[in-house]
Design brief:
The protein has ten helices and 18 strands.
């Protein structure tokens, strides 16, 4: 049973919209593109894993995807996939990496060689082991039953190859296609049922309540100023900027496409990239509108929560990490 489904993270959604509005001539474009491609690859790897998770018994395996919790010391930890069964917990740390992979876990390094280029990154085994310790702390803090807590690094790319791997690496690293075999082995290893339906309901409710998505802006992370982001309404058809508004319709001069609602996508971009709230003046600037009355009609038509007086009125675009548009 999938108790939290797989979705694009808020950070990835922000990266997507940032790339749509960042000029290729910008000196930070390559850095931004690498950040976007890294997170996009991670999401695609997680989606590839979901196929093999579908072979598990949905009545016994309860799946939480992309959860981010805080331990007792206030440190956040994120788990790609958490499997909860009556017998054990299993953390899956998913990596969509291509090339030759050498897990140097004693030095906390993963050495990746691809196309004669060598990259060093934090060892995913160490990452998963740390997540295990933090999740154990979190579960104990909330008085859940003591139960075996396993972790596994999952390689989601068929073009990756393990090299110089020892027995420990092969125990802790699996291909995504091996997930059903892995869970079968753990079922045989841990035969005593510990977790009850009551425990599961309490855990589900608490995880969904305490799950805290990362809200960091990629603009801040990459030191990109808001003025560097393209303004205006993007054409849904040819993706160019900006569309012009005339008689309640947005019109693209490049491909002749027209739309009555194209501004909603731009407002969503503003919410993701610039801020949770917006004023009439800010909307006009971002949409490249001249009329304050048109902007007022656009804002009022969406029934956004409002704060402030008429003169200082602001409209709420995101609430509880959820887009309202």
């Amino acid at each position: 049973m999938i108790l939290k489904k797989r979705e694009k993270s808020l950070y990835l959604l922000k990266l997507e919209r940032m790339m749509a509005r960042l000029s290729e001539k910008n000196p930070k474009y390559r850095l931004a593109s690498n950040e976007f491609l890294k997170h996009q690859a991670g999401y695609r790897g997680e989606m590839a894993v979901d196929y093999y998770l579908s072979f598990l018994s949905m009545s016994e395996y309860h799946i939480f995807n992309g959860i981010r919790l805080k331990d007792s010391l206030g440190r956040f930890f994120q788990i790609d996939t958490l499997l909860v069964t009556p017998w054990y917990y299993l953390i899956l740390e998913i990596k969509n990496i291509i090339g030759d992979l050498e897990f140097s876990y004693k030095q906390n390094q993963l050495i990746r060689t691809y196309e004669d280029k060598l990259d060093r990154m934090e060892c995913p085994i160490t990452q998963a082991k740390r997540q295990r310790a933090q999740l154990h702390n979190w579960l104990s803090k909330h008085n859940f039953p003591a139960m075996p807590l396993e972790y596994q690094v999952i390689i989601a790319n068929n073009h990756a190859r393990l090299i110089n791997a020892d027995k420990y690496v092969y125990e802790k690293v699996s291909r995504h296609s091996n997930i059903p075999n892995l869970t079968n082995s753990l079922e045989k290893k841990y035969s005593g049922k510990v977790f009850t339906d009551k425990d599961l309901k309490r855990l589900t409710k608490l995880i969904l309540k305490k799950d805290t998505p990362l809200t960091t802006s990629p603009l801040i992370q990459l030191k990109i100023e808001p003025f560097e982001i393209e303004k205006g309404v993007q054409c849904p058809s040819c993706k160019r900027f900006p569309m012009k508004r005339s008689h309640k319709v947005w019109f693209c001069a490049f491909c002749q496409f027209s739309s009555a609602t194209a501004h909603l996508h731009a407002m969503r971009d503003y919410a993701l990239l610039i801020g949770d709230t917006i004023s009439n003046k800010e909307l006009r600037y971002f949409l490249q509108l001249n009329s304050s009355s048109v902007a007022a009609k656009i804002l009022s038509s969406q029934n956004f929560p409002i704060s402030g007086t008429t003169r200082n009125r602001r409209y709420l675009l995101i609430k509880n990490n959820k887009l309202l548009i």
